[in-house]
Design a protein that fits this description.
It is built from ten helices and seven strands. It has about 250 residues and is an alpha/beta fold.
């Protein structure tokens, strides 16, 4: 269960661990940010939602960083339920570990549809439920993994006093796997271009944003290479995350 703390202190803790763990930085750049940036449609107006500690700046400083929290790490404090952009002004909307934090995911997707141009893309890296990840997210993660949630409905997923970083790791999976028909009805011009299940042992052994790592830096490249080579074998039952790409048809 997520235990609330001062939001800015939470961001500073993440930035401190980020600075102290080279293996974490390498993993995020190679596995997460590279996927997000490589999946973009052509265009110069790229907006990240839920930027939090602002690590996107190291991957591509040209991406506009937004977050509901006002901090030195973002360009703009903005609620993704009500973005300060005109209709069709944005080429790509990117997010890393953000969709599963929204109290009204369907309303956020509607808002992304409003600001996205025809041919633009919503590109997300999110937790995703498999046999293995369900165990990890249920018993070894600070956020809940509630498969009984119904994020495709027009109702709050969390309580009214939800903390900014409170999340439900099951939300992306539930939206795509169980809310498919609702998404087709609400967002008829969206097409799911990519659903790539990936990420496994390298992330777990790195310790993530915990202050420790069980993976020596020199072994990371070897293990990640093996992970990529065997991905077709384990992705359906052992992946921890998914790259999700929706494209808005012209």
């Amino acid at each position: 269960m997520f235990e609330p703390k001062d939001d800015l202190a939470y961001l500073r803790d993440h930035r401190r661990v980020w600075a102290e763990k080279p293996i974490l930085r390498r993993l995020y750049h190679e596995q997460f940010y590279a996927r997000l940036l490589d999946a973009r449609a052509p265009g110069s107006v790229n907006v990240e939602i839920g930027s939090g500690p602002g690590f996107m700046a190291e991957a591509d400083e040209r991406v506009w960083r937004t977050d509901i929290l006002c901090s030195p790490y973002v360009h703009l404090a903005a609620d993704a339920h009500r973005l300060p952009f005109g209709a069709g002004q944005v080429d790509n909307i990117l997010g890393l570990d953000v969709l599963h934090h929204f109290n009204h995911p369907l309303n956020v997707l509607r808002e992304l549809d409003r600001v996205l141009r025809a041919g633009g893309r919503v590109i997300l890296v999110e937790p995703y439920i498999t046999l293995f990840s369900r165990f990890i997210y249920t018993y070894l993660h600070q956020e809940v993994c509630d498969l009984n949630a119904r994020p495709w409905e027009d109702m709050p997923v969390f309580s009214q006093d939800k903390a900014a970083f409170e999340g439900n790791a099951a939300i992306p999976y539930l939206l795509i796997e169980r809310g498919r028909e609702t998404l087709r009805r609400v967002l008829p011009h969206w097409r799911l271009q990519t659903l790539e299940r990936f990420s496994s042992l390298t992330y777990l052994l790195s310790g993530g944003f915990k202050p420790f790592s069980l993976l020596p830096g020199p072994l990371y490249g070897l293990l990640y290479g093996l992970e990529r080579a065997t991905q077709p074998v384990w992705r359906s039952w052992a992946a921890l995350r998914a790259l999700i790409v929706w494209e808005k048809a012209a």
